[in-house]
Structures are given as structure tokens and as C-alpha cells.
Design a protein that fits this description.
With about 300 residues, the chain is an alpha/beta fold. It has one domain: Glycerol-3-phosphate (1)-acyltransferase. It is about 50% helix and about 15% strand. The chain contains ten helices and eight strands. A six-stranded mixed beta sheet has the order 1-8-7-2-6-3, with helices on both faces. The two termini are about 30 Å apart. The relative contact order is 0.15.
Amino acid sequence: MPSLLTGVIASILLGINIIFWCSLLFIFTFFKVILPVPVIRRGLTAILNAIAENWISCNSGWMWLTQKMRWNIQTPPDLNRKGWYFVISNHQSWVDILVLQHVLNRRIPLLKFFLKQELIKVPVMGAAWWALDFPFMKRYSKAYLEKFPEKKGKDLETTRRACAKFSTMPTSVMNFLEGTRFSQHKHDEQQSPYQHLLKPRAGGMAFAINAMGDQFHSVLDVTVHYPDGVPTFWEFLQGKMQRCTVLVNEKPIPDALHHGSYETDAAYRESFQQWLHELWSEKDQQLQALEKAVN
């Protein structure tokens, strides 16, 4: 089938899937908003999460119908749907989100992504992410904070509030630690010490782990690799992504990092950054090995 026709069919199926599941999602969200009784809200949250999982399963369905892709997926054998996980991954394309959902759906609790505040304005999807309690982060530039110092730490307060919602129900908190999609230009501009990665941002992750205390079972460190080159979303819809490798490694969170102040405790901040640097260095080596295997 011609790639253009494949892209059109995949786009139609994607659109139908969004309309159908969002319609159900918004009906139950309405009741969640007007019935602020904790027990009822928890029940409705469980229903909303189930709707989202079925939505993701249907995404996997149209991907299977329209894509001739070879998956190489390696995951731990004992993932727990009733656990709490902090999930991190490298970020190269919007396709990453569908890949992560496809690989982890129903193996762990529903992924709740950290999103930029601007994404709440995306038609339909922004409202869906809000309904599912995805945490929206507002990043301030250094120049802005110098002009308005009272805004310092506001994004981390958002992290605390979001994580408070996750404490009563098994949740997987997902964060692309690089904060943006990888490009060689961004890599060179920030003089990243890693070959295939941008520098990770530790603050949001540290505050999430602190806010959740000891509830997080572990970190799921995901490495996504596209052997035939990083696809755009349209290339993906056209079936031009022939292969995808996803490696999921479960890592314990050091006891010393469960509690501490990233903002005020310099020793804690240094320890957290060093731990994250070690994770990121290992991920960089994985990506380097995968690149060599292709070449």
C-alpha cells in the first residue's frame, strides 16, 4: 500500500479513536468535577484511567493494522500494575509517546506525563490530559525569574500538588528529563557531555520523589532507539518506521534520595545529580551500542 494512503488511513483511525474515547472521558470527567466527594472521585478516577488504557490499546490496534514494524522490546518480567513507578526516557520525537504507551500499557499503572503548560491549549487532547490529571509544568526563563523572583519555585509547587493526587492510587509518573526533543543543534548549544542525549533536568524528578516519599517502588529507565533514523509523526503514520528498539531497566531509588530538599540542601542536590548522571551515562552507552549494532 502506498505510504501516503497508509498515512491517511492511520490518521483517520487515530482521529476516530480520539473522538470516541474522549467523548467517554469527558462524560465521566463532568461527574468528577460536580461530585467532589473523595470516595466518588477515586472511583471516577479509576474509571477514567481504564478508559485511557482502552484508548491506548486501540492505538496499538491501528498501529498493528497499518504499520509493518519489527519491535525489539526488553522489559523486566515482574512489573506490577498495582505499583508506583517513576518512568524516565530519552526523547527524540512525538512518536516516543505512542511507543512508550504501547510498550508499558497494562504492564504498569497508566503513564501520567509531565507536560509543558502550553500543551493544555491543544484542542481536545489538552482537555483529555487535564481530565486524566497529567501534571502541567510552567517553565520560567532565567531572565524572567530575575525580573519576577516571586515566581521562583512555582513549577515545583505544581509538581507537589500533582503528586499529592497520585498518592492514593497506583500511578506511573513519566518525565522526559531532557525537557525537549533531542537535536544536534540543541546538543551542541548546551555542550552536553553525552553523545546521544541532552543534559537531564533533575529538579522535577527530585521533587516528585520527595513528594511521594517511599511510595515509588523504583525507577523504570527506558531507552528508545530508532535503527532507521528518528521518524517524524507523519512518517510514522505513513509506516516508514520499520524498526524500533525499547529497553526497559528497573533501577532502585537510593534510600538517601527519598527525602531531602533539592532547593536548599546542596549535599542532597549534588547526590541526586550524581545519581542521575550515572543513569544518563549508562543510557548513553546503551544508545551507542545500539548505533554500532545497526552500522
